[in-house]
Design brief:
CATH class of the largest domain: Alpha Beta
Distance between the termini: 20 Å
Strand order of the largest sheet: 3-2-1-7-8-9
Bound molecules: 2'-O-acetyl adenosine-5-diphosphoribose
CATH superfamily of the largest domain: TPP-binding domain
Number of helices: 11
Largest sheet: 6 strands, parallel
Length: 238
């Protein structure tokens, strides 16, 4: 009797257009905490203080200290077998798009090319005055950092209540609507509009494969729910 992972693998093998949506769970085995699972950031800290424009306006130094600590921790990590499996999948697929909510840059580091970053990038700094962006992977000694124009820099990530990068969700939606398969890995699927890509795929022609040790609100609707860590399961889809 075929196991779900075998059936999922044959769907992936036959798919011409593959879309993937990832979340913090795919980086968990690299050593980066998630947001909502055990030990996740939002279990111990208030996202209102750390991940909203209002929190930043109230105390930019406090917010920057948290981001800088995360930057330092992420700098110590490496992509895991799950990130590498997605690169291998991209290399052999006719069409492949990876949509990620992650800001850690591990998909880039692994070698993913066709990547849509819905929530920005923790290595990008953006000026709150002139809007100029720069990539800076160095340790930031003085917090908050400032731009050449004198404006305060902020992390180039999307905070709660903010718009996603221009065109990102539109592009991701178009990819999902035309995909043969959507692989959803390591996301609790609780943050919108990213999570809306899953019902969008379910309403269109795509098979949906969920990779997650835990169930999510969409688990009962997906084509295959593969329960386990992504660094183990994603390589099995190759
Ligand atoms: P969450 O922390 O909400 O969810 C992480 C998911 O990963 C959970 O469903 C876990 O069960 C799953 N998980 C844990 N370990 C895993 C593993 N080894 N392999 C696979 N899955 C695993 O993170 P996201 O869904 O990414 O946004 O959260 C979405 C957004 O909320 C983030 O981008 C961030 C956060 O607030 C902003 O900061 C704007």
């Amino acid at each position: 009797m075929p196991q779900p992972v075998d059936s999922a693998r044959s769907i992936v093998r036959d798919a011409k257009r593959i879309a993937v949506l990832t979340g913090a769970g795919v980086s968990a085995e690299s050593g980066i905490p998630t947001f909502r699972s055990n030990g996740g950031f939002w279990q111990n800290q208030r996202f209102e203080d750390l991940a909203t424009p209002q929190g930043f306006a109230r105390d930019p130094k406090f917010v920057w200290q948290w981001y800088e600590e995360r930057r330092r921790n992420i700098a110590e990590t490496k992509p895991n077998a799950g990130h590498h499996a997605l690169v291998a999948l991209e290399n052999r697929a006719e069409q492949f798009t990876l949509v990620t909510q992650n800001v850690d840059g591990l998909h880039d580091l692994a070698g993913s090319k066709n990547l849509i970053k819905l929530h920005g990038d923790i290595w990008t700094l953006r000026c709150t005055k002139c809007n100029k962006e720069k990539v800076d992977r160095t340790e930031l000694a003085d917090l908050p950092p400032y731009c050449d124009c004198g404006g305060m820099l902020r992390p180039g990530v999307v905070w709660f209540g903010e718009m996603l990068p221009e065109g990102a969700i539109e592009k991701a939606s178009a990819v999902v609507v035309s995909a043969d398969v959507l692989i959803v890995a390591g996301t609790s699927a609780q943050v919108y509009p990213a999570a809306a890509l899953i019902p969008l795929a379910l309403r269109s022609r795509a098979a949906v494969i969920e990779v997650n040790p835990e169930e999510t609100d969409f688990s009962s609707d997906v084509t295959f729910g593969l329960r386990g860590p992504s660094a183990t399961i994603l390589p099995q889809l190759l």
